[in-house]
Design a protein that fits this description.
This protein is mostly helical and 293 residues long. It has 14 helices and 4 strands. The longest helix is centred in the last third of the chain and has 28 residues, at 265-292.
Length: 293
């Protein structure tokens, strides 16, 4: 480790996160100093420590501690990615793309521990591999670093590999979630885009998306779409009602467990709405009783 001028550091790294929660880090550096040095290569290019670099710059600190690594370009990229994965919270789609790239690099550097995502190693195979090579497969390595399960890491990487660009974009803008993307990615990419249009148009939830994908695989897209369009509208209404009632029930129970004696203006307004809901529910439940009799 050595000290260099911060002005000599070259910041040209797409993986660096320079502005995430820098103020908190600045306060920490002012109070207890810099715990971890910046990581640079022989050409002074910053590999890891983007937030630390920004915090030091904002504080006006000119001489900064650095650790210089002399590694291959792929190893340098892996260092930057691993810092990003461990220290920063990435968005779902971005996280999966970075994970996939990291796996590709890791297995190019260490081909002896390459692993098929669709056929993970059994426990005895994994133990034998680690004894032989002294290294873990990428999925095991990164799962421990980020505090996740190997299965979740595999799913994330497969989702990036299998999802069409339109499906990824839909996730980025919040039109679908990760669970829906996992279901959709089971199809070929052309069909994925067809399914995506229906899911967004019909505002399907994850179970609805799963059913649509399952029927597409079993019966073809045209039949699955016809089944969806012929669904009785009342079925969707009651499906939505069920989700609303579950959510409302959980929130009410949480309130009753924490502050059941609360009495304020908002409660008065809420009770008026509740009275209208109770009237509608009594009518609904009454019709159900009549049918049973």
């Amino acid at each position: 480790m050595k000290t260099i001028s911060i002005e000599d550091i070259v910041v040209e790294n797409k993986y660096l996160r320079l502005n995430d929660d820098v103020e908190t880090l600045m306060n920490s550096i002012e109070n207890i100093g810099l715990i971890h040095p910046l990581v640079i290569n022989k050409d002074n290019k910053l590999l890891a420590g983007g937030r630390r670099y920004t915090a030091l710059s904002e504080l006006g600190i000119q001489q900064v501690p650095v650790m210089v690594v002399d590694r291959s370009p792929l190893e340098q990229e892996l260092i930057s990615i691993e810092e990003n994965i461990v220290r920063q919270k990435l968005s779902g789609v971005e996280f999966e793309a970075v994970l996939r790239r990291a796996k590709d690099i890791y297995e190019e550097l260490y081909p002896e521990v390459a692993e098929d995502l669709n056929n993970p190693l059994e426990v005895d195979q994994l133990e034998a591999l680690m004894q032989e090579t002294g290294k873990k497969p990428f999925v095991m390595e990164v799962a421990e670093k980020i505090g996740s399960s190997p299965a979740s890491v595999r799913t994330a990487i497969r989702r990036d590999i299998d999802s069409s660009s339109r499906v990824k974009k839909a996730r980025e803008v919040g039109e679908i979630n990760g669970s829906q993307a996992t279901h959709i990615s089971k199809l070929d990419k052309t069909t994925q885009n067809d399914i995506l249009s229906v899911v967004v148009e019909q505002d399907l939830d994850s179970p609805g998306t799963r059913i649509l994908v399952k029927e597409t695989i079993e019966e073809g897209f045209a039949t699955a779409l016809s089944n969806l369009r012929n669904l009785n509208p009342s079925e969707k209404y009651f499906k939505d009602f069920g989700k609303t009632f579950r959510k409302l029930g959980k929130e009410l129970q949480q309130f009753l467990d924490t502050d059941p004696k609360f009495d304020g203006q908002q409660k008065v307004k809420a009770m008026k709405e509740a009275a209208l809901l109770r009237s509608a529910l009594n009518e609904l439940l009454g019709s159900e009783v009549d049918q049973e009799e």
